[in-house]
Amino acid sequence: MGLNKVGILTGGGDCSGLNAVIRAVTRSAIIEHGAKVVGIEAGFEGLVFNRTQELTIKTTRDILTLGGTILGTTNKGNPFEWREQNADGSISVYDYSDKAVQTIRELELDCLFVVGGEGTLELGYRFQERGIPVIGIPKTIDNDLDKTDYTFGYQTAVQVACEALDRLATTGRSHQRVMILEVMGRTAGWIALEAGIAGGAHIILLPEIPYDIESVVRKIRFRARGGSPYSIIMVAEGAKEIGGDVVTQESATTRLQGVPQLGGIGFHLANEIKKRIDLEVRCTVLGHVQRGGTPTAFDRVLGTRLGSYAVQAAAEEKFGTMVALRTPNITLVPLQELAGVVRRVPLDSQLVRCAESIGINLGREVG
Questions:
Q1: Rounded to whole angstroms, how far apart are CA atoms 344 and 186?
Q2: What 8-state DSSP symbol labels residue 145?
């Protein structure tokens, strides 16, 4: 059929490398197929309210190194369950999927490229089921998407977290303090684990392994007795104590996103440690610093490869798929196989084994 006109949207949280994908899709579609490229603004919200912009080689020329997304994004825009806040603070839910489909039809798109994490790709799959030609492009700093070795944005987030840990280690060592760094990771602890290993953390706490506070404190005391009265702790925001719940800032019922806002586990952990040990404890929350800024070379290349291959797949009418990195190649996997699936850190993985073998405490007793 050939490609005459394609659209691209970026959904969910922003991350480094999104603009590399937008640039690659635009350039590949125009240079190889002479197609027009439509940028959908603010994710699926742009489809609901028909907000778009034309993308050209000129308008995407200098965006490779930029963080964020020039199209904007939102994780509030599920057209199938559109949430709007009423004057009294309550939230009403509507189905705007027909409006989104109508916009796509009016734009006469040969393919819609959906760039996002598991939630965004699940929506892409639902539109595919409605007859819309969709190809997914995996994006999440959490690296928690199945069927792909890495997602772009992840390596940048790990690098930022590792650099923060390096800096905290110097002040922790100087003042003989326990330094805690809280990073993102709702249900998967990939950032905390890899950045913690790279940054020389002594304790890493993951959502996958509910931690024993006494095990954590024993590690700190062990180090102090051995002449190292400082410890570095990396904790994912979704980590929780055995028998406890995740620490949240706001519940799901009061948020337009429909999911709770996590955060605060670092300070909770600091308070619990202070009750048990006579050392100063400090906590730093890295927050959205992990998402923003210039992407690493790895994420620039990966984003470019994924965007280029997505256009090739669209030209071959291989819709209902996601482009994925299966090292060293980019390949295709069915959206149906990964829609709504979260990849967590396997407890028997070599990465977990590696961490514990070099003495990193993961909040549990190792036999």
A1: 10
A2: B
Q: Which amino acid appears at position 172 of this protein?
A: G
Q: Which of 239, 266, 292 is the last residue before a domain boundary? A: 292
Query: Helices marked H in the chain — which ranges?
Result: 18-33, 44-48, 97-107, 118-129, 154-175, 190-198, 213-225, 265-274, 297-315, 350-357
Helices (H), 35-187: 44-48, 97-107, 118-129, 154-175
How far is the CA of 125 from the CAs of 75, 108, 335, 339, in angstroms? 16, 19, 6, 7
Taking 3-state DSSP, the helix, strand and coil percentages for the chain, each rounded to the nearest 5, stand at: 40, 20, 40
**139 in the same domain as 20:** yes
Same domain, 299 and 280: no
Distance of alpha carbon 168 from alpha carbon 282, whole angstroms? 10
**252: confidence class by pLDDT, cuts 50, 70, 90:** very low
CA pair distance 218, 222, nearest whole angstrom? 6
Q: How confident is the model over 98-114, as a mean pLDDT? A: 97
- Tens digit of each residue's pLDDT (9 = 90 or more) over 255-304: 455 556 677 999 999 999 999 999 999 999 998 899 889 999 999 999 99
Same domain (yes/no): 107, 192: no
Range scoring the smallest mean pLDDT among 12-16, 128-132, 210-214, 340-344: 340-344
Q: For residues 346 and 188, what is the distance between their CA atoms, to the nearest angstrom?
A: 10
Which one is catalytic: 110, 142, 144, 299? 142
Residue type at position 325: L
CATH number at residue 306: 3.40.50.450
* 142 tagged catalytic: yes
What is the per-residue pLDDT for 312? Answer: 98
> How far is residue 273 from each of residues 104, 143, 364, measured CA to CA in Å?
54, 30, 16
Reported confidence tier of residue 83, pLDDT bands at 50, 70, 90: confident
Round to whole Å and give the CA distance between 297 and 279.
Answer: 40
Angle at 188 between CA 75 and CA 194, to 5 degrees: 115
Tens-digit pLDDT profile for residues 190-238 = 999 999 999 999 999 999 999 999 999 999 999 999 999 899 999 999 9
